[in-house]
Request: fold
Amino acid sequence: MCELCTPAEVLTDNALAYARLDSNSLSRGHTLIVPRRHVADYFDMTVQEQAAIGELLRTARDMIVERHSPDGFNIGVNVGKAAGQNRMHVHMHLIPRYSGDVADPSGGVRCVLRK
Reply:
């Protein structure tokens, strides 16, 4: 098991994964969902680990809605250095979005690659 955070930082967890606030937050409530087993690539996780992350994604979303009342969310996983993965331990971003947080949110995650 890889310990990337102390138990005090865990918002919610299950047997295979945990959720914690992002220490380099992009918005109020920005949360990371991380498998307990050290694995670099999302596609190398077991089906059970992927399901555990999906379960925590829903739980963390509910917590964020209750605490921050966002207007939307972006969900993302960077896989590989070419995709911007800097820490070689899978982590899913749950990023709350708020009306007016950017001038034009059109395109959402599709705007990562600017044309």
Notes: The chain has a mean pLDDT of 90. Helices lie at 47-68. The chain has one domain: 7-104.
